Every structure is written in structure tokens, then in C-alpha cells.
Amino acid sequence: MKAIKIILVTAMGAGLMLAGGCQPWQKKYQTCQAELDNLQALFEGSQGSLQQCTAERDRLAQQLAGSQQQLQSERTKPKTLETGLEGEGGVYDPSKGTITVPLASDVLFDSGKATLKTESKAKLNRIAGIIKQRYGNKEVSVVGHTDTDPIKKSKWQDNWELSAQRALAVTRYLVSQGITAEHLIASGRGEFHPTGAKKTENRRVEIVVHMFQ
């Protein structure tokens, strides 16, 4: 009986020693578990932030794509400009920065001639007035064109010469109406730049205002 008591006491002592020895490891385990829980919470929080960032990135990418599309649309959209020459048939070309007023040669001149008709001067007066008022410091080209019919009866050597002389006639008249000669350029292009199939459309003098010069 005495031996049994000794064994029980010894066992209890060993158990107490073992329990006491496990306490530091239990604390370490609890500390590690707490750190693991914190890391898990941080990970879950970062996953949520990542999802938010991804959604925001996608939203901004869509917004950027829409802005780029709108910008491209604005770039390719035909530009309109109140030139003051619309009533005279003026056409604004935004890519070239020019306003072109086409004048039918049949209205300005008799066949094969380079002398302005009296009735054509009223239109030229209106055009000259607008140019002086709105584009007085801009360069203006006066370009003569003809059809493909060869010169037969008139005194001109060829259509090139006829187109140049008609451009000169209009240019000189614009100078007489107060447009500065230094801003004017007269040139003839003969039959080489037709605008359509009809000869009447190709026989013309163009007054071209260069907006950016």
C-alpha cells in the first residue's frame, strides 16, 4: 500500500511538472495563432481592396476609351465656320484652312476672252468687300481653269495662257477694289484640274482665301 502511494505521488508530481513545462509552448502557440488570425484578416482585407482597385481600374479604362473615342469623333467631325462668303458660294476646307469661291468663267467672260463682263463686277464687288473687311491681311490666290477644248479662234497660245490671263483680269479688278496687291497671287492651271464631267463646271476662276497665312 505504501508503495502504491509513492507511485501515485510520483505520477502526480510528474504530471504537474509536465503541465508546468507546457505553459510557455502554449503561450507561443496562442501568440502564433493570433498572428495568423491577424494575417488572415489582413489578407482578406487586401483581397477586398484588390477587388475595389480592379473595379476602379476597369471603370477608368472604360472612361478613357470613351474619351478617346469622343476625341477621335471630334477630330473627324466636319468643321463649320461662318466665313461671310457662304452667300457667294464660298466653301471652307478645314484641312487646308482655305475658303474657296468658285466663279463660272461663262459668267465672268465671253467665250475665249479675258475681259470681265460688266454684269459680273457686282458679284466681284461683294466678294472684294467681304475680303477687305474680314480677311484684309490674308493671302488670296486667284486661280484660272478652263475646259479641255483646244484653242482654235482666239489669240491665246493654249488653255494655260487663257486661264492665266483670266486669273490676272480678276486679280487686277480686286486690286482696283482696294485689296492689297501684295496679298494677291494670280495663276492659271489650264484644263488640268477639272471638278466634274461638265465643261461649264470646269471653266471657272477660283478666289481662294488662305486663312492661316
Counting DSSP H or I runs of 4 or more residues, the number of helices is 5
**Mean pLDDT rating:** 85
Q: Would you give the CATH topology of the largest domain?
A: 60s Ribosomal Protein L30, Chain: A
Rg calc = 46 Å
Unreliable residue runs: 1-19
Count every beta strand, where a strand is a DSSP E run of 2 or more residues: 5
Domains (count) = 2
Q: Major sheet, described briefly?
A: 5 strands, mixed
Description:
The protein has five helices and five strands. By secondary structure, the chain is an alpha+beta fold. It has a five-stranded mixed β-sheet. The protein has helices spanning 2-76, 105-108, 121-135, 159-176, 199-202; strands at residues 91-93, 98-104, 139-145, 184-188, 204-210. The model is unreliable at 1-19 (pLDDT under 50).
Write the layout of secondary structure elements.
Layout: H1 2-76, E1 91-93, E2 98-104, H2 105-108, H3 121-135, E3 139-145, H4 159-176, E4 184-188, H5 199-202, E5 204-210
Parallel strand pairs: 3-4
Antiparallel strand pairs: 1-2, 2-5, 3-5
Task: List key phrases describing it.
213 residues, 60s Ribosomal Protein L30, Chain: A, alpha+beta, rod-shaped, 5-stranded mixed sheet, 5 strands, single chain
